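_Per-residue structure_
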Amino acid sequence: MKKFTSILLVFLLTLSLSAVAFGQSLMVYSALHEYEIARILDAFSKETGIPTDFIRASAGEIVARVSAESAAPRADIFLGGPGDSHAVLIPQGALLPYQSPTAADIDDFYLDPEYHWNGFYLGALGIAINTERFEAEIQPLGLDYPKTWEDLLDPAYKNEIVVANANTSGTGYTFAVNQLRRLGEGAGWDFLDAFHENVHHYTRSGAAPARMVGAGEFIIGITFGHDILKPLSAGYPLKLVYPPNVAWEIGGVSIIKGGPNEEAAKKFIDWVLGQEAGQLHSDLSMRISTRTDVSLPPGATPLEEIVLIDYFLDWAADNRVRVLDEWSNRYE
């Protein structure tokens, strides 16, 4: 009995020292869905013994929060959201460079050259269409399913389109920059002005349009394809269209510099860039992993089968403040 008690005390002391070493919890700010975050962090804690906590927000809101807290950071990890949402924090000195040994298994194209952030998933924007409402309300007007961005400018879609706010959502910002880079800034803003006439409202969350269109609240929604695949695979009456010259993202993860649990944050980066975590994330989210040894999610379209616009992360990060100011002046 005494031997058992001694072993138990040693075990509890080890756990206590681990908690002290890594703080009470690893705090994660994440732009992923709450269910995905909870499952990912639960798996990490079970494997490492490091406790976790998280706050879910859109990528734009996380950027604003990390910037505001830069003098006294409260979180350790920024998980998810387009790479430019991470890159915009680099000049502020808000991210801690860390070259994880696990990153060696990922193509350098998906990693920040100085390892301020690491890409762990990929995704392209798509158009979500409620098939029941489209066939009942739009097809009788003589219109076919939209195939291009310009098709969405038809007056038949007035007040029937939802997309995320570019200020609060990385998805919304990606959509806006998609048009500016596809057409050039002058014609791009002209397109967004015309598109705005058909928008019912701009959501705070990037994934919300897929859910709203799936539920029949609106006919058209713009969001990333993986966020459309989820309600589509659940049986909602949806069609997913990838228009030509569509933007795509490298979803990032980074360490917040000066956070309370730096060593635990590094362990998380090592873990989340691994094969098992990558497969778990893809299975949960239907996103495409940057790792070649992670299976493609069911129903997902490989990026090489989509007509993608040239990647524009650096431009999106360097021009973020200017573009968002202009977007706000026009549409808020």
DSSP finds 13 helices and eleven strands in the chain.
